[in-house]
Design brief:
The protein is of the alpha+beta class. The protein has one domain (20-109). It has helices at 2-13, 55-58, 105-109, and strands at 21-29, 35-39, 42-47, 69-73, 76-88, 93-103. The longest helix is centred in the N-terminal third of the chain and has 12 residues, at 2-13.
Length: 118
């Protein structure tokens, strides 16, 4: 019994640890079902039309204050935000959002490392 427990703990210790990271930039929702975050390292997809977005991604997105949001297509548009996320770097996707906060538009506008929002 003790050996089985020790083997189980050893197996768990060998699994790669997942650590969330903070990503800040343009949180964009240009059309229904399409969401991404563009930061200084690239564009990370949260959801696209036809792709089933998990609750782990979509339920923890922050709500924008209407004064810090640019409506560029009816109710759709973009704002500046920081998200605590897990990334699939190879797939350029955000696979989990733990939470986040919106920021003033001026924060992203003044960040020379960020491309303009699409």
């Amino acid at each position: 019994m003790k050996l089985a427990v020790a083997v189980a703990f050893l197996a768990l210790a060998m699994l790669p640890a997942r650590a969330s990271e903070n990503r800040c930039g343009w949180l964009v929702n240009p059309t229904p079902g399409n969401w991404w975050l563009t930061d200084r390292d690239g564009t990370w997809t949260l959801a696209t039309q036809g792709m089933e977005a998990s609750d782990d991604v979509m339920l923890n997105l922050p709500e924008f204050d209407e004064n810090e949001y640019v409506a560029s297509n009816g109710n759709y548009g973009y704002g500046c935000a920081c998200l605590s996320v897990d990334l699939d770097v190879a797939g350029e996707r955000i696979v989990n959002v733990y939470g986040g906060k919106t920021l003033p538009l001026s924060r992203c506008e003044s960040d020379e490392a960020l491309p303009p929002p699409e």
